Amino acid sequence: MSYNAAPQNFVAISDLHPNTSHPRVAGVIIGKTDVKSFPDRKNVGFDRFTFSFTIKDSPEYFINVSSWGTDGYVNGLANSFSIGDCVIIENPLVSTKDPEKDDRFCPSTPSFYRLLVTEAHSRLSICADMEALGRLMPLLHVPGKDPRDFYSLGDIVANGQSLDGSVINVLAAVRSMAEPKCFTTSDGRQGQRLEVKLFDESVTSFSLVCWDREAIQLVQTLAPKETVLFLADVKIGFDSFRNCMAATVNSRTIITVNPDTQEASLLFNYVKEASESGTLDQDDHQGDMPLESIMDVYTVSQLKMKAQESPDTFCGITFSLISKLDLDSSLSKVIRSRCSKCKYQVKEEQQVCSNPSCPAGGAALTVTTGFDLLVDVTDHTGTLQTCSLCGPAAEKTLGVSVEEFLHFTEDERTAMKWKFLLERCKVYLKISPSPKTRTGMRGTILAFYIADPGEVKQSISAWL
Asked: What pLDDT score does 336 carry?
């Protein structure tokens, strides 16, 4: 692998032909598979290695490239570049593709041909030509399929198992991602799996599963709640374990990050507004892990320290005082109304949702009303301020519904406040990264209860 900064006379992908003499092609990598091996029929006892990738040099044209050879050559070539790199391929073999065979396991391309890179005849280098880079890099944000031809997550859920096994296009945003899980297959091969949660205006959480190392590496660079994806040719299946539909990235899938399309722009605006308004955090409560599975106990300072050291969301317990719980302030600060379609905060007297990206599209406003509290928790190491306590979690913790609370007198609300205020409680928390906040983190209270003195004593003994 080398870097090539000299100006080149490139052959456009649209002009490639089997009779092209010593072609030189420049493109940006938009897809790539893992290296695989197969028994070599000509040399018994030996394996042949192969991988493929897809390059693009214009909004309309892209082509599949494959490489076959020895372990050292193929793995060395595959490790020398990643999705998003610009490369120059010199003297590849241009062959007519078999639509029945080639498009079955590789991305569907508009070209009639495919390229073969060999150790003996071809050369691949990283492109460092600034003019070429300026032309090629924006293509990473141009989907290879019609940007209007996609299913929303709501469409997938509505169609249900009728889409089982289908390969479709999906436009959605990244909500969260789990840690990759490694495993060993029954025949001793190493594998990995990464699950990503997607969302859009119609569905708050939908699973996308990645099995290939290349796809996992790409997805791990994405910022949750800030990234929109156009997934071309993703496979839809029914997850019988969870009793829901899910998507899987396969060898045909091309992932376009933050596509430069009108449809993606509208979704991005919704993502931004939902994130800033706290809607996503409110919806997160519905998918939180069961309280009985949260075992780790922290002091407030330990929670803050772990949040600074790790970018991952985590849950824990703290035995702390409830130092702020303004149940007796104005009702508008305790209970908020949100659009039932997009969860954007609204006023009930509004006729339509004020969110320009709301899927209701100017229809009559329907609202949902729920608790929306900010709570401080304090122990001997410090205070965790403005933790969110919302929706069903708040109703369960306080032991009262929104409708019942609205009929409380001010004295009754004050009495409820002092039932918890300055009491030592067992607080179940979820801590999430939040770069836009002053502390860089956001605390969400999943539940709290008056603590058992025995548990408090045990936890304090562990700190000393």
From this structure: 82
For residue 438, give every residue at least 6 positions away whose Cβ sits within 8 Å of its Cβ, in sequence order, or none.
none
Mean pLDDT of 163-181: 91
Name the region of 165 (left: φ>0; alpha: ψ -120 to 50; beta: rest): left
Tokens 């058992």 found at:
452
Q: Give just the sign of the alpha carbon dihedral 394, 399, 403, 407.
A: negative
203-238 confidence digits (pLDDT tens): 888 999 999 999 999 999 998 888 999 999 999 998
The answer to whether residues 256 and 229 touch, using CB atoms and an 8 Å cutoff, is: yes
What is the C-alpha to C-alpha distance for residues 273 and 264, in angstroms, rounded to an integer? 14
> CA angle, 180 as apex, 179 and 184 as ends, to 5°?
140
Phi first, then psi, for residue 403 (nearest 5°) are -60, -45
Instruction: Tell me the DSSP string of 283-342.
Output: HHGGGPPPGGG---B--HHHHHHHHHH--S-EEEEEEEEEEEE-TTS-HHHHEEEEETTT
- In the chain, % helix, strand, coil (3-state, to 5) comes to 25, 35, 35
In the structure encoding, which two tokens stand for residue 358, read together?
């709301």
Name, in order, each residue with C-beta under 8 angstroms of 214's C-beta and a sequence gap of 6 or more: 32, 33, 34, 82, 83
Residues in the chain: 464
> Could you tell me which of 126, 125, 127, 116 has the C-alpha nearest to residue 66?
116
**Rounded to whole angstroms, how far apart are CA atoms 233 and 236?**
9
% of the chain exceeding 90 in pLDDT? 49
The whole-number average pLDDT for the span 143-157 is 92
Nearest to 417, CA basis, from 301, 333, 312, 307: 333
Mean pLDDT to the nearest integer, 310-330 = 87
